[in-house]
Amino acid sequence: MDELEYGPVEMFVAGYTGDGPDPQIVEAILELVNAGTVRLLDLLFVSRAADGNLTVDELEAVGDRYGFGSIELAASGIAGDEDIEAIAEAIEPGVSGALLVIEHVWAKRLANALYQAGGSVLFSDRIPAPAVNAVMAEAAAEAPAESTTEQPVE
């Protein structure tokens, strides 16, 4: 293989209350896909009713209702039953989640360069945005205030 067909792929679940994702969530996903930043490989919607029953819907069945319109998946079926079972435990009654499988198109060139050079990613970890923002806010609060003394103009 001369070149990798896909860049790094990530599976994650965006949780929310109610049956369907908020329009802001849908808009953010569509913006990333339309900009070519990510490629949507698979998307499932998992909901747990108040009585505990679990419902799993594929994009094709509910995409129009949730605002995804005619978006097409690049490789439907990547998220399997084991994945759904694993996330189902995290979904409490009255909560839903969108299980997204996305290719990080922005990282494909780097992945290709590593692959062609015989290298590999030795470690990768995703830090959730709220955690990064909390750490940065704490660091900013602890930073000494910069001196505001005026310098004479010559």
UniProtKB/TrEMBL annotation:
Pfam families: DUF6325. This is DUF6325 family protein. It comes from Arthrobacter hankyongi. InterPro entries: DUF6325 (IPR046288). It comes from the Bacteria.
